[in-house]
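Collaborator request, handled under Task 6.
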Amino acid sequence: MTPCRRLRLNRKVVDEEGTLSAAAGYFRVSWPTAQKWAHRYLELGNEGMGDRASWPHSRPNNTSQPLVKKIVHVRIKKRLGPVQVAARPGMHLAPLKGE
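Structure tokens returned to the collaborator:
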């Protein structure tokens, strides 16, 4: 749904006091989707109708920078692949997966 259609859906529900089910049917979205946008409209108003970023706000299990630098150094200088790097002491394969 575009932000404009989200706003129209919410005006139909909140401002015109229509039912959520009727508005969801009119705009051809599921009831949970209509409810999500109605809650966001009540909470944030027109500003809440835009898209939000989908990336995680924190990464608690992220690989430490020193280890990443060490792996990159070994990969470039020694020209080793992920399996050979993972076989070295203190290294593991997880940071190499997204290559």
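The cover message to the collaborator said: "The longest helix spans residues 31-44. The chain has two domains: 3-49, 65-96. Please let us know whether this matches your experimental observations."
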